[in-house]
Amino acid sequence: MTAPYDTIAKITRRGERGSLGGYFPQYEEFAIRVYDAMVSGDLEEIRVADMEENVGKLDDIVYVTSSEVHAYQVKWTTAEDTMSYLDFIALIPGIANGWKNLRRLYPDKTIYPKLLTNKSLTDGDYSINDIQSDG
Q1: Which residues contact residue 61 at a Cβ distance below 8 angstroms, ignoring those fewer than 6 apart?
Q2: Nearest to 49 by CA among 69, 77, 30
Q3: Which tops the pLDDT comparison, 126 or 29?
Q4: Nearest to 117 by CA among 77, 87, 90
Q5: Do 24 and 77 meet the contact criterion of CB atoms below 8 Å apart?
Q6: What are phi and psi of 114, to 5 degrees?
Q7: Is residue 47 part of a domain?
């Protein structure tokens, strides 16, 4: 019989491995974008591990140039994983809230909220075209 602790530890390790595996692409993207902005002389600010009331769910990567704010929500995994339409829709309010917060912080800049993921889309979801053709 497996002890409850063993099951919890196994699930926790699996989740942590998936999470840690997602950090490399996140930080690689951040490094590339920040480096490019630095080389062009346009980088003004970076935000690292910012509080949610500042950037909402766009807290994974944020860098600011003279005219733009680029903010990312990253959903990356090393395990086979999918993103359903409902998963995607669930992310939208947090991303929109982050856009609003950043718009308040940087009223004179264009805000570019982005979702970066390597998750495959699920097969069973309807597309917008499917929904429109049914009605």
Answers
A1: 26, 29, 30, 33, 70, 71, 72, 74, 116
A2: 30
A3: 29
A4: 77
A5: no
A6: -140, 145
A7: yes
Domain region containing 87: 4-123
Looking at the domain assignment, is residue 12 inside a domain? yes
Pairing mode, strands 61-65 and 68-75: antiparallel
Is position 131 within any domain? no
Residue 128 lies in a domain: no
Between 133 and 121, the higher pLDDT residue: 121
Q: What is the pLDDT of residue 6?
A: 58
Give the percent of the chain with pLDDT over 90.
36
Distances (CA, A) of 79 to 13, 21, 23, 72, 87: 13, 9, 13, 21, 17
| Structural domain count, the chain | 1
* The model's pTM: 0.73
Q: So what's the pLDDT on residue 5?
A: 57
CA terminus-to-terminus distance, the chain? 53
CATH number at residue 25: 3.40.1350
